[in-house]
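DM between two lab members

TW: hey, do you still have the DUF5333 domain-containing protein entry open?
JB: yeah, one sec
JB: this one, 134 aa:
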Amino acid sequence: MKPLMSAVLVSAILTGSMALANPPLREVKEIDDPLYWALVAFEISEVCDSIDARTVKGLSDGWGLIRKARQLGYSDEEIKSYMRSDTEKARMRARGEAYFKHKGASYDDPETFCALGRIEIERNSQIGVYLRAK
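TW: and the structure you got?
JB:
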């Protein structure tokens, strides 16, 4: 009976630990979405010569996201893994390209990125706050 009790206890502990595990950072909207918005803004600024990225704001908010992830219980290793993951980079890239296509921006015509950037700036959107006209 003792081995059975031990097995039940270990199982209960492991199940409880797994229930407390954080979801992947990609599923945490308050981390993933702001990162996406900043990356979209950066891409607009890279393609459009008449728009700059608000780099200091982006960096400041990036550090804020790291602090927020830590407060949510993520380790530095989990955060680094998320930020450096080729899979996550590809996912963000695909998400951004879908957004650009939906908004009519084309890499073949940089002015379409400028027009999109100006709209985002004027709207003071989550993307626009990371951009400024030159």
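TW: got it. Confidence is low (pLDDT under 50) at residues 6-19. Residues 23-133 form one domain.
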